[in-house]
């Protein structure tokens, strides 16, 4: 079976790798000719505005997915006229605009920080976080108003700045058959808006909060008739959860599942799209994910599983990650203390 991926970055590359392990033939479409995922399957290095190439790509695959939520809607519409695309247009419509996303979460009674729209020309609040409504990721397109006074020329979203205790991520997956599975709640460590580490499972989280995170993700999956993997980023604030953002795709906070779970998020994404039974999300130990930013070590640190993306190193760029797995939180902490220097 031939499967398509819109986008050939590191997420497309890892999705293609999982597809190959399942006996599938991945095709990757990305206008960036040097995108690291092109080497992982059949490459389609054409523009998202090239309707003929998009149609030929769509006819060449049995179903299709996307690696990131900012793929142009028109391109997805063209492909969807020829083949099945999942998660689908509803998820894209919600996630491509932060204001729409916040309003969507509110309709599902999912708590989030206070927010309101901001348009160019309005006076900037003294405090809070200002985010572009579209195209922001990894800290790009957002500003802490207590530290800087930006003058963006596009519509934005203002959010209150929270004094949170930590950030968390809940990943769920829903199959075409309606089957749903959840991965353990994960603690994430961000620096300058970029995920640097993930601790799995998250430690010392009350069962009530774990259940709430799963309930919220379940609501999103059901409401959108969603098919595939979805992540919900969360803040823990004084014993309660607030939703930050959702990602309708495989997620950086779930990369550890490739080594730390019976079934990775990448494999389960394909299983969901194909309508196959979902694989077990049971962990095989305590894990820590460390993103490699800007460079990779010449030799992988002892006791780690190294995944390199084949990307040209440059400061702050995600070029790979290390996954550490041990039998206890203490053991994985001891293991990680010797390798954290590689993540800068």
- Beta-strand percent range: 25-35%
Q: Architecture of the largest domain in CATH?
A: 2-Layer Sandwich
The overall average pLDDT, rounded, is 94
**Outline, from the CA principal axes?**
globular
| Poorly predicted tracts of residues | none
Relative helix content: 25-40%
Task: Report the order of strands and helices.
Answer: EHEEHEHEHHEEEEEEEEHEEHHEEEH
Task: Look at the helices and sheets and give the structural class.
Answer: alpha+beta
Tell me the number of structural domains: 3
Terminal residue distance = 40 Å
**Gyration radius over CA:** 20 Å
Describe the sheet with the most strands. Answer: 9 strands, antiparallel
**Tally the helices: what do you get?**
9
CATH homologous superfamily classification of the largest domain: ATP-grasp fold, B domain
CATH class value of the largest domain: Alpha Beta
For this structure, the CATH topology of the largest domain is D-amino Acid Aminotransferase, Chain A, domain 1
Number of strands: 18
């Amino acid at each position: 079976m031939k499967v398509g991926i819109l986008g050939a970055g590191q997420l497309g590359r890892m999705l293609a790798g999982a597809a190959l392990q399942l006996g599938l033939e991945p095709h990757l479409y990305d206008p960036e000719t040097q995108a690291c995922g092109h080497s992982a399957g059949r490459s389609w290095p054409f523009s998202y505005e090239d309707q003929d190439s998009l149609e030929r790509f769509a006819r060449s695959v049995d179903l299709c997915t996307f690696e990131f939520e900012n793929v142009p809607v028109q391109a997805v519409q063209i492909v969807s006229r020829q083949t099945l695309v999942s998660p689908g247009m509803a998820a894209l419509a919600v996630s491509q605009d932060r204001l729409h996303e916040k309003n969507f979460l509110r309709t599902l009674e999912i708590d989030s920080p206070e927010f309101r729209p901001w348009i160019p020309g309005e006076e900037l609040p003294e405090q809070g976080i200002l985010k572009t409504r579209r195209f922001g990721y990894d800290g790009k397109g957002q500003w802490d108003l207590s530290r800087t006074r930006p003058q963006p020329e596009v519509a934005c979203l203002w959010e209150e700045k929270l004094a949170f205790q930590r950030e968390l991520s809940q990943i769920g997956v829903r199959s075409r058959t309606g089957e749903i599975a959840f991965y353990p709640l994960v603690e994430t460590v961000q620096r300058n808006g970029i995920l640097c580490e993930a601790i799995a499972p998250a430690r010392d989280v009350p069962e009530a909060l774990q259940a709430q995170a799963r309930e919220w993700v379940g609501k999103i999956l059901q409401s959108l008739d969603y098919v595939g993997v979805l992540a919900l980023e969360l803040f823990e604030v004084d014993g309660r959860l607030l939703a930050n953002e959702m990602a309708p795709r495989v997620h950086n906070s779930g990369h550890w599942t490739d080594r730390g779970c019976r079934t990775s998020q990448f494999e389960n994404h394909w299983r969901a799209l194909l309508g196959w039974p979902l694989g077990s999300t049971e962990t095989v130990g305590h894990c820590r994910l460390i993103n490699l930013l800007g460079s990779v070590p010449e030799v992988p640190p002892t006791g780690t599983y190294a995944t390199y993306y084949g990307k040209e190193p440059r400061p702050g760029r995600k070029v790979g990650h290390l996954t550490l797995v041990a039998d206890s939180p203490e053991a994985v902490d001891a293991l990680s203390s010797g390798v954290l220097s590689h993540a800068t």
